[in-house]
Design brief:
Elements: E1 2-9, E2 16-25, E3 28-33, H1 35-44, E4 59-61, H2 66-69, H3 80-86, H4 96-103
Antiparallel strand pairs: 1-2, 2-3, 3-4
Amino acid sequence: MSTLYLAWQAPAARSWYVVGRLSAETGVYRFVYTQGALRADREAGFGSLSSFPELGRVYESDTLFPLFANRLMPRSRREYPAFVEWMSVSEDESDPFALLARSGGA
């Protein structure tokens, strides 16, 4: 199992909160909100992400959720081989979760 955490920065106070956890296990992706999301909501008006509107729900998918997949370079781009090389991942092993972890979604 692999796990990544999602951080959110409050616009006014600029405080950071860990608001979600994304995990991948045997072909299933799961997203859940952490206690940090509740704290961010209470202290800074976080609310929720539009892709995941319910704070108490476990979201599951057999593909990487679009919110995260859209943070990765598409394989069809000409620059993709250079991107995975820059991430120090071979093209054969470049699963989306590993690239998201390496790139931080940037």
